[in-house]
Every structure is written in C-alpha cells, then in structure tokens.
Design a protein that fits this description.
The protein is built from eight helices and 20 strands. The protein is an alpha+beta fold. The chain folds into two domains: 232 residues, Rossmann fold, CATH 3.40.50.300; 129 residues, Nucleic acid-binding proteins (OB fold (Dihydrolipoamide Acetyltransferase, E2P), Beta Barrel), CATH 2.40.50.140. It is globular.
Length: 371
Amino acid sequence: MTSSAEYDLECINVSKHFGSLRAVDDVSLKIPKGSFFSILGPSGCGKTTLMRMIAGFNDATAGDVKIKGKSVLNTPPNKRNVKMVFQHLALFPMMNVYENIAYGLRCNRVNKAETDRRIKDVLERIALPDVANREIHQLSGGQKQRIAIARCMVLDPDVLLLDEPLGALDLKLREAMKIELKLLQHQFNTTFVYITHDQSEALVMSDNVAIMNEGKFEQVGSPQELYHVPKTAFTAGFVGDTNRWSGRVVATDGETVKIETDTGLTLVCKRFGDTAPGDSASVSVFVRPEFIHAAWQATDVDGASGDLVNHMKGTVDSLLFNGANSRVLVRDGSGELIEADVTLTGGSDDIHPGQSVWLNWSQAHTMCFAS
C-alpha cells in the first residue's frame, strides 16, 4: 500500500465556491513523485482555480491540499515549496538571464558562491549553458520558456505548476516545446502539474491526465486509457477527434448494444461506461476517424476480430490532405458529414471528391454511452 508521503501532491475533496458558483466541486487527486500530471478541460471548467488553490493564491472552501504528505492549507504561497510558470512567463526585462534566475535565491539569502553553482547547474540541465549574460530580449520564445522554468527549478520545488505556458507561442514552436518540457521534467525528476485546454499537449507529455468538466473530474488515467477506454461521453468527445451520433437502444446482448441513430443508421456498439440496457434508452455513439475504413463495398465482418462491422454509404465531399494523416469527409444520406482517415498515394486509385464509397468500422471501435 502506498503511503501518503510517496505522493508529492494530494488534493482531498477540494472545493471552491464563489457564491452559488461551484468553480471546483469535490475534487481529489494523488500525484506520485516525479510525475508529469496534466489537468485538461475546456475554458471555465475550474482547472486554473484548482491550481491557484494548490499554489495558495486562493483558499479552499472545503477539503485539504497536501505537499509531501503535509497539509498546506494554512501555509501562505511564499512558504509552500511550490513554484508556478504562467502563460506570459513574467521574466524581468530589465534583468539578464543570470539575474532573473538568481532573483529567488537572493530573496532566500543564498550566498554568491552557492547561487553561482546552482545557476550553472540549472542552465546546463536546460541545455543553455552559455546564456547567463544575455538580455531577455535576445532570447527566442523557446529559450524564454526554459529560462522561466529554470528560475523556478533553481529553488528545488517539490511541485512545479504550469498554467498553459505554451499558449502564447506559435504553432511550430509549441509543437517543439511539448517534447522539450517532457525532457526537462525527466531531467529534473520533479513533479510537473500542467494545466491546459489543448488535448495534444496533455496526451503527448503526461504520465496521467485528469479530464475536468464543470468543476469535477470526469476521469483520471493514462493518455492511452482516456483515448481508448473513456468512461463518459464527455471524455470520449473531448479527447481526440471523433464522429458522434445520438440515438436510442433497440436491442442489447451482454456488452453489445444495437442503436438506431437519429439520422436513421442502425449501429452495433460495444458498451462503454454505464449505458442503460433496454429499449428506447437514449445514448450517444462515438467512432474515431482512424477506425473507419473507406472502401468500394460494404463489409459485414471484421476479418481480424470476427466482430460485426457497421457500414454506411455516402459521397465523398472533400479531402483534407496531410500526407500520411490525410482525412476524407463523406456526406451520408441525411446530409451529415462523417470523417475517416485515409492513405493517399497520389495514384489513380486514390479516393476523390464526388465518388460513392462505403464506410466500414468494427463494433469494438464503436463507443456507446448513456446520454
């Protein structure tokens, strides 16, 4: 059994109310030492409020926050061994890199020799050993991100909080910094708690992710679990790209559910979550584009698994070319667009707009949740 001291951060039934608004509603989490943990959710779901309670900037209405097994509810922010990196970094423009990183050490009255040693060490860890004397305006966006992290890590925090730190970067730099942040977390072996509304950031970097919605955690798990085995309709729809239908149950058989959608499709689904059995139960159905195969004919059985295959006929509306990750948009008889991933070789056999195609996918990849 894992002891409380083995967790760098614990939130126990934490809530924050602003009048009648429950910004954070009875949230609990435990983050093991040296983990990269993300809190993922849409704007306004409560994730930043939760982070501010962990940092000590907001008081919890109820519950407890523990760092290294000890409650910090009555500990002011500057006395908690938690540091925070904001989206806009808050580096001091009038100070050079050395002075920015040294700021917290000087506030803590660390002597010059120890300050020099720590700054040299942290700059080597972030792979910027020669920038100590540079001015902040001389740094690239990615370098500024690393200096902001170094300024926190030189103080040896138990937990580093990152509040959407990549939000102000351009797309190409943001993609590169995802990898950088994961490597930095391994380099320091410090617990990172990352707040984001960008699922790609959370899935790529994290050991575990909490999906947050309307002040509550919908599901906590590894990126693979959240993507392939979501427990709620919100998680299935929020994590990854997906096609979605609404419908009603017309028959059930163990873990298999037969659905008639509002658009007239009949689908055989694998039951996820707590789908209510019985006729007329209202459900939501999700299928990811990569599991839909576009072909010239309908297929009744998946040769690999023996599962029944769902299929529908439609007309190719358009192609979204992206090399190996290209996608086709197919319009069904009801006028709804369905997304499916395809491989385009540039040859004459490639699917093109205006063609009639069948879309086939396995019941095992058809997720069904009670509405």
